[in-house]
Write a structure and sequence with these properties.
It is a single chain. This protein has nine helices and four strands. With 199 residues, the chain is α+β, with helices and mostly antiparallel strands. A four-stranded antiparallel beta sheet has the order 2-1-3-4. The protein starts with a helix and ends in an 11-residue tail after the last helix.
Length: 199
């Protein structure tokens, strides 16, 4: 029965320490952060086997402190940031694949294409440049003709070719989208009542 209470305390301690460490997912973590998080999980489980709860929490705290120190050091020094985190690697430049860089990253063309498809890119030729970020995610820029039209560009076109219609649209009040609150407004102004389907 005692190990149940220990498990609950360790879970709460783990949640608290992870809140201090930050709210990044594994995909967004740097190499150092991933190592620390995996170690943290291993340390927290140890007391259930070895019955040393206090040491486990202190050890986990040391690992979280290590993350905070590493992140602080990276903010203060660009050289240390490059050493600890690494830097972005260009895999497509001016629409051309950098095969040498892909080989260094041990990334196949098929894997790169899969990542581009996940981002909604239909053709490799549409990409002006692409990078593999230190956290493993893909960053890319489309060629000028392949970029989607922005609202600002659309308004400029309307003002240029249809000034009367553009003026009319500006004066039209926004349509009522219902009583549902904007998701971003909820962050600053949380609703007092919980919807019935969540109760």
């Amino acid at each position: 029965m005692n190990f149940i209470w220990q498990s609950l305390i360790l879970i709460l301690a783990g949640i608290f320490l992870l809140r201090i460490a930050g709210r990044k997912s594994i995909a967004q973590m740097t190499l150092a952060q991933t190592v620390v998080m995996i170690s943290l999980g291993t340390i927290i489980v140890q007391p259930i086997v070895e019955k040393s709860m206090f040491k486990a929490i202190v050890g986990a705290g040391v690992f979280v402190l290590a993350i905070l120190v590493l992140e602080y050091v990276q903010v203060k020094s660009n050289a240390l940031e490059k050493f600890i985190t690494g830097k972005s690697k260009v895999v497509i430049e001016n629409g051309q694949l950098d095969i040498k860089q892909l080989k260094k990253l041990r990334l196949t063309v098929d894997q790169l294409e899969m990542r581009l498809r996940n981002q909604g890119v239909a053709k490799l030729e549409h990409v002006k440049s692409a990078t593999i970020e230190p956290n493993g995610q893909l960053g890319y820029e489309l060629k000028q003709l392949e970029k989607p039209l922005t609202i600002g560009e659309f308004k400029n076109l309307m003002n240029l070719y249809f000034p009367h219609l553009a003026q009319q649209l500006e004066n039209t009040p926004p349509s009522d989208t219902g009583t549902q609150q904007d998701l971003f407004q909820e962050i600053n102004h949380p609703k007092a009542d919980t919807p019935r389907y969540l109760q």
